[in-house]
Amino acid sequence: MSSEEETSQTSTPSSSPPPSSSPAPASHLIGRKEDIVKAGRLIKTVNGCREILVLYHQGTLHAMDLRCYHAGGPLQHGDIEEFNGRLCIVCPWHKYKITLAEGEGLYQAVDDPTVKPLRTHWRSKGVKQRIHKVTEVKGSVYVTLNDCSEAIESDVYQTERYRTGSIQAQTNPKP
Length: 175
Hints:
The protein is mainly β. The protein has a single domain (3-171), classed as Rieske [2Fe-2S] iron-sulphur domain (Rieske Iron-sulfur Protein). 11% of the residues lie in helices and 38% in strands. It has two helices and eleven strands, in the order E-H-E-E-E-E-E-E-E-E-E-E-H. The protein has helices at 33-39, 160-171; strands spanning 27-32, 41-46, 50-57, 60-65, 79-83, 86-90, 97-99, 104-110, 120-127, 131-137, 140-144. The longest helix has 12 residues, at 160-171. It is globular. The relative contact order is 0.20. Residues 1-27 are annotated as: Disordered. Residues 28-121 form the Rieske domain. InterPro entries: Rieske_2Fe-2S, Rieske_2Fe-2S_sf, Sol_Rieske_ferrdox_dom. It comes from Champsocephalus esox. Keywords: 2Fe-2S, Acetylation, Iron, Iron-sulfur, Metal-binding, Phosphoprotein, Repeat.
């Protein structure tokens, strides 16, 4: 398969559809793959209202809502780390861990707090961050927005009320 026919997605390999020569009808052009790879991360507003972060890490493109589900932290400044074999972006504000593939929030659970030393393991809080499908067609990167009708916690930072307040705060900073 030539690099122009490659399809790169956030889904697991077992659920990857065959390569396509054209983007999905509901997809949005993000840019050239080579530019995104060079930049590492890119912020894009899709449909005139949804702010997404597109990032390239270890040969894979990922897309998610820009702001952390917890308190709206800017994920474009988060580090990528591996926790229990899962790649996560770590929110720079409160260190919340979000899986790149599924948008799950991870936390460290303690087996038995009475036993010393404490034994911890990573657990999922469930999907908290909206993840979007990334596709590459002939060197161009497209994102198809996640159309799951179920509310996801990161959705609150995509509302008109939040965007309007955020824009006003940026244009009218406190003295």
